[in-house]
Amino acid sequence: MGLVVTARALLFDMDGTLIDSTAAVERTWRRFAARHGLDAAAILAGAHGQRTAETVAAHAPPGTDVAAETAWLVAQDVADTEGTVALPGAADLLAQLPRDRWALVTSAGRELAERRMA
Q1: Active site residue 13
Q2: Per residue in 7-63, pLDDT tens?
Q3: What SS3 string covers the chain?
Q4: Residues 85 and 19: beta-carbon distance below 8 Å
Q5: How far apart are CA 62 and CA 66, in angstroms?
Q6: 80 an active-site residue?
Q7: Which among 15, 20, 65, 77 is annotated as catalytic?
């Protein structure tokens, strides 16, 4: 017997719910850490699920242009989706739902979300 859910619409988080982009995310934050001589493990401990600009502001050296660094990181993320995979059953679930009855909610920007969901 399958699960029956009655709802008018559904909201899905992206990472950890529909996809796993851990490998790509960690590569990007490791590049950021290397650029600034920072501890990648400390950054990764709090980066998942947090907006990029917030993580940059929390870890970047004083005087860093947070907006420019955030743009660089987002470009890195958009370019590097290697190893990003759909979680088991996610694609089948979304295919069964009417397209106008579900939405993606994520801390990622639209371009990155579209790239990862592809």
Answers
A1: yes
A2: 899 999 999 999 999 999 999 999 999 999 999 999 999 888 788 999 999 999 999
A3: CCCCCCCCCEEEECECCCEECHHHHHHHHHHHHHHHCCCHHHHHHHHCCCCHHHHHHHHCCCCCCHHHHHHHHHHHHHHCCCCCEECCCHHHHHHHCCHHHEEEECCCCHHHHHHHHC
A4: yes
A5: 10
A6: no
A7: 15
Instruction: Name the active-site residue from 13, 39, 65, 100.
Output: 13
For 22, the token pair is 């851990």
Cβ-count burial of 77 within 10 angstroms (0-12 exposed, 13-18 middle, 19+ buried)?
buried
How far is residue 80's CA from residue 91's CA, in Å, rounded to a whole number?
A: 21
How many angstroms from the chain centroid is the CA of residue 49?
Answer: 7
Residue with tokens 């990862």: 116
The mean pLDDT value of the chain amounts to 93
The answer to pTM > 0.90 is: no
Structure tokens at 79: 């370019």
